[in-house]
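Incident review: delayed structure delivery

Summary: a single-chain prediction request sat in the queue longer than the usual turnaround. Root cause was a stuck worker, restarted by the on-call engineer. No data loss occurred. The affected request and its eventual output are reproduced below so the record is complete for anyone auditing the incident later.

Affected input:
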Amino acid sequence: QVQLVESGGGLVQAGGSLRLSCAASGRTFSSYAMGWFRQAPGKEREFVAAIGWSGGNTYYADSVKGRFTISRDNAKNIVYLQMNSLKPEDTAVYYCAAPRELKYGSSWYFSLDEYDYWGQGTQVTISS
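Output delivered after worker restart:
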């Protein structure tokens, strides 16, 4: 049973920083890519960032590029999302996600439908 547990959300002022963590268990973490998504009130869940199994490949939504950094520690089974220069429009529930199967190529990383396991989410609120 794969479990993903996010933490690190909170309330910060615009311009501030947060680091989200996602602890994974239930399978060989280091073999699989991981992703972060977010969902704001009244909006659809959207891609934020993803990272390949080794950490060598990373992908970002245009809206967070240059401000957010995804990384992973395969020894600890944790994936991180460092968020800097936060804006009110970054307010959302942030979810980490993982695919059920090994996948190849890069186009699939951005699609919500390609991920099978999801955490419960952590709330991030940015005040102006």
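Verification: The radius of gyration is 14 Å.
Action items: add queue-age alerting; document worker restart procedure.
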